[in-house]
Amino acid sequence: MSNAPIGIFDSGIGGTSIFKEIHDLLPNENCIYLADSKNAPYGNRSSEEILQLSIKNTELLISKGCKIIVVACNTATTNAIEYLRQNYNIPFIGIEPAIKPAALNTKTKAIGILATKGTLSSQLFHRTTNVYANGIKVIEQVGEGLVPLIESGQLNSKDIQKLLSSYLEPMLKENIDYLVLGCTHYPYLIPTLIKMIPDHVTIIDSGLAVAKQTEVVLTSNNLLNSSSINPSIQLFSNGDITILNSILDNKFDVSYLKF
Ligand code: DGL
């Protein structure tokens, strides 16, 4: 079982930001990644739709023999992980916006969070914010329109810059010193974002934390791959594989799959 693959899914190419962290930290592990680009963005869908899509992706990964599933999507985690954990007999790792480190470290007592509507409206997000960000001003912003642009390969276009500038403005007005990226697509915008925010604003995302948590859970379940011979890395997309390939610098085995 320990040489079975880690299954990873997202609404599209965004979760590859998590896949890369996992692959860097755990290079011996076999991985299967599903990019459900056909159904992206998940962020504007109802909670029920997000749940059904998460179930579909989970069952496909389980049918491919995965030993653990990383839900590399804040929107799917905040809307579906409790159900998945209760209904499938396999460990799940989720990703949530990194509110806790931002709230603990802010000096201006104001933090910004950029995420999808599905994440910001979820109960899990509200619970986490209430627990960790008491007494801190949290400026929430839906990143409307960003995911479709990223899915089409635009990371620094005029359209992206225009949207980001309107989303950052209210946060900068409130003097935030932390910007939390609550969607796995957004780390690809960091080079663009850095040029748009003052130096004292720190950007944080949860990618490395998710990879470390994956290692902890694999270790405690005795599931770390003991073999280091040619790990198999397969990425599947039900959309345009050119974008997925290019975001990964053509380094991995990417194929089209209908799902
Ligand atoms: N990448 C996903 C997330 O982390 C979903 C974005 C979307 O499909 O709207 O939330």
How many strand units?
Answer: 10
Alpha-carbon distance between the termini? 25 Å
CA-atom Rg in angstroms:
18 Å
Going by helix content, strand content and strand pairing, the class is alpha/beta
Shape designation: globular
User: Architecture of the largest domain in CATH?
Assistant: 3-Layer(aba) Sandwich
Order of helices and strands: EHEHEHEHEHHEHHEHEHEHE
Number of domains: 2
Question: What is the helical fraction, as a range of percent?
Answer: 40-55%
- How many helical stretches? 11
Determine and state the CATH class of the largest domain.
Answer: Alpha Beta
Under CATH, the topology of the largest domain can be stated as Rossmann fold
Low-confidence stretches at least 5 residues in length (pLDDT < 50)? Answer: none
**Taking all residues together, what is the mean pLDDT?**
96
What's the gist of this structure?
The protein is built from 11 helices and 10 strands. It has 259 residues and is α/β, with parallel strands linked by helices. The chain has 2 domains: 6-95 and 207-256, Rossmann fold (3-Layer(aba) Sandwich), CATH 3.40.50.1860; 99-204, 3-Layer(aba) Sandwich (Rossmann fold).
Structure description:
The chain is of the alpha/beta class and 259 residues long. It has 2 domains: 140 residues, Rossmann fold; 106 residues, Rossmann fold. It contains 11 helices and 10 strands. The protein has a 6-stranded parallel beta sheet with strand order 4-3-1-2-9-10, with helices on both faces. Strands 6-5-7-8 form a 4-stranded parallel beta sheet, with helices on both faces. α11 links the parallel β9 and β10. The structure holds D-glutamic acid.
